[in-house]
Design brief:
Layout: H1 2-23, H2 27-47, H3 53-63, H4 67-84, H5 89-94, H6 96-103, H7 105-124, H8 131-141, H9 146-155, H10 160-190, H11 197-227, H12 232-253, H13 257-275, H14 279-306, H15 315-343, H16 353-359, H17 365-372, H18 380-410
Helix pairs in contact: 1-2, 1-14, 2-3, 2-14, 4-13, 4-14, 4-17, 6-10, 7-8, 7-15, 8-10, 9-10, 9-18, 10-11, 11-12, 11-13, 12-13, 12-14, 15-16, 15-18, 16-18, 17-18
Length: 423
C-alpha cells in the first residue's frame, strides 16, 4: 500500500505541475487528460510491439487498486464533506424544491429512460445484456457526480443560482442512485427478473433517512465541541474525526455515509462557521479542507485517466457510448426544461438556466466506481467500458466547454443572483 500510494501521489504531483505550468486547464480536467495521454502512450508501446514491459508493469500496478473501494469507502467521505463545507445553506434552502425533484424523481425517470435505451443499443450491436442489468447501468450513470461538478462549475464562473442548483442536486442525488443501484443489482444478480418496490422503499428510508439523521447528530455534536474551545488545531482534528469516524459509523449502521457527510458538512460549514469558530480557526479549517479536496480530486482524476490501460475499448463500445451520451443529455434537457417551462408562468428564471443545468450535469468517478462494483460475468465488461467512455466525454467535452456556455448565456452577470427564482 505504501508503494502504491507513493507511486500515484508522485504521478499526480508531476501531472499537477505540468498542467499548471504548461496546459493551464482546470486542475481536474488537466490531470485526467495527462493521465489519458500516459495511458495511450503505454497502449501504443504495447500495440506496436515496441515493448510490453511498460504495459505489463502498468497493468500490474493498476490491477492492485480496488477503484470502487478506494473511492466509495475512502475518498468520497472527504470530498463530499469538503464540498458541502462551502455551500451556503440559506441558498440551498431557497432552491430546495427544484433540487429535491432532480435528486429523486429525476434519477428515477433517468434510470428508466437510459436503461431502456442501453438495452436497445446493446441488442442492436449484438451484445446480450439483460434488461435488468441495463437498468443497473441506468442507475449508476444517472446521477450527476458531486466530485466532478463542484470544482468544474465553480471554475466555470457559473452564476450563484445556477451553481447552487446543480451543486445541491449532485450532493444529494448519489444517495438515491446508490439505493437504486443496490436494489436493481441485487435483483439482477439473483436472476429473479423482478424488483421488490417495497424493499426498495424501505432500503431508501433506511439509507437516506438514516444518513440524514446521523449527519445531523454528528454535525450537532462536533458543533458543540467546537463551540466550547478556541484552538484551531483541535477544531481541525475534530472535523477530520467527524469525516473518518462518521463514515465508518454510517457503514456499520448500514445508512448512507455520503448523505451523512453532506449533512454534517453543511452544519459545520454554516452553523459552526458562524457560531463556533474564530477567524483564525476559519482560515485554518478552510485551508486544510481545500488542500485535502484539491489533492484527492487530482489523485482521483489521474486514476480515471490511467484506468484506460485496463479498458478493452472498441469502435462498437465507442458508438454505443456516444449514442447514450445523446440520450442522457436529451433526457436531462426534458427533465429540467419541461418543469421550468411550466413554472415560468409564476416564477422568473434566469435566461439560459435550462442549457447550463443540462450541459453541466457531469458524470464522474462515482459512476465508474459503481460500474466496477458489478460482479464478474458476461454482462460486466460492456457496462464498465460504456460507463468509462461516457465519463470521459462528460469531463473532457462538457467540462471544458461549460465555461464558454456560461459566458455565452449570462455574459457579465455571471456572479449575480436571480432575485425572484426561489424554486
Amino acid at each position: 500500500m505504501l508503494n502504491l500510494a507513493a507511486l500515484f501521489i508522485t504521478i499526480t504531483a508531476v501531472c499537477m505541475w505540468f498542467n499548471h505550468r504548461v496546459l493551464r486547464l482546470p486542475p481536474t480536467i488537466g490531470v485526467m487528460a495527462i493521465g489519458l495521454v500516459l495511458s495511450l502512450g503505454v497502449i501504443g508501446l504495447d500495440h506496436f510491439a515496441v515493448t510490453t514491459v511498460v504495459a505489463d508493469i502498468a497493468e500490474d500496478w493498476l490491477g492492485r487498486i480496488n477503484f470502487n473501494s478506494l473511492l466509495m469507502d475512502g475518498m468520497l467521505s472527504f470530498l463530499l464533506f469538503a464540498g458541502a463545507l462551502h455551500v451556503d445553506l440559506s441558498r440551498l434552502k431557497a432552491y430546495r424544491r427544484s433540487i429535491g425533484l432532480l435528486a429523486t424523481l429525476g434519477v428515477l425517470v433517468s434510470t428508466l429512460v437510459i436503461g431502456s435505451a442501453a438495452w436497445w443499443l446493446f441488442q442492436w450491436a449484438g451484445i446480450e445484456v439483460p434488461y435488468l442489468y441495463c437498468l443497473v447501468f441506468g442507475a449508476l450513470i444517472s446521477p450527476t457526480d458531486p466530485i466532478a461538478v463542484l470544482g468544474i462549475m465553480r471554475s466555470a464562473g457559473a452564476p450563484a443560482d445556477m451553481e447552487i442548483r446543480i451543486v445541491g442536486e449532485s450532493l444529494f442525488n448519489d444517495g438515491v442512485a446508490v439505493v437504486l443501484f443496490t436494489a436493481l443489482l441485487s435483483a439482477a444478480s439473483a436472476g429473479s427478473g423482478e424488483v421488490d418496490l417495497g424493499h426498495m422503499g424501505l432500503l431508501f428510508l433506511e439509507e437516506a433517512g438514516g444518513g440524514i439523521l446521523l449527519g445531523l447528530a454528528l454535525g450537532a455534536l462536533v458543533y458543540q465541541l467546537m463551540r466550547s474551545i478556541d484552538q484551531y488545531q483541535v477544531e481541525v482534528m475534530l472535523s477530520l474525526a467527524l469525516v473518518l469516524g462518521g463514515y465508518a459509523l454510517a457503514s456499520a449502521l448500514h445508512v448512507s455515509g455520503p448523505i451523512a457527510m453532506v449533512v454534517a458538512g453543511l452544519i459545520i460549514g454554516n452553523m459552526a462557521r458562524d457560531g463556533a469558530m474564530s477567524d483564525n480557526t476559519r482560515r485554518y479549517l478552510d485551508g486544510f479542507w481545500e488542500l485535502v479536496d484539491e489533492i484527492l480530486n487530482a489523485v482521483l482524476f489521474v486514476l480515471i485517466g490511467l484506468e484506460l490501460v485496463l479498458m478493452p475499448i472498441t469502435l462498437t463500445s465507442i458508438g454505443i457510448a456516444l449514442a447514450l451520451v445523446a440520450v442522457i443529455l436529451l433526457s436531462r434537457l426534458a427533465l429540467i426544461g419541461i418543469p421550468l417551462s411550466i413554472l415560468r408562468r409564476w416564477y422568473t428564471f434566469r435566461a439560459g438556466t435550462t442549457r447550463v443545468l443540462t450541459w453541466g450535469g457531469l458524470r464522474g468517478g462515482i459512476s465508474v466506481a459503481l460500474a466496477l462494483a458489478i460482479p464478474e460475468g458476461d454482462f460486466r465488461e460492456p457496462l464498465v467500458v460504456t460507463t468509462y467512455i461516457i465519463v470521459l466525454f462528460s469531463i473532457l467535452v462538457q467540462g471544458l466547454s461549460i465555461g464558454k456556455l456560461v459566458t455565452a448565456v449570462v455574459g457579465d452577470r455571471s456572479r449575480s443572483e436571480a432575485p425572484h427564482d426561489q424554486h
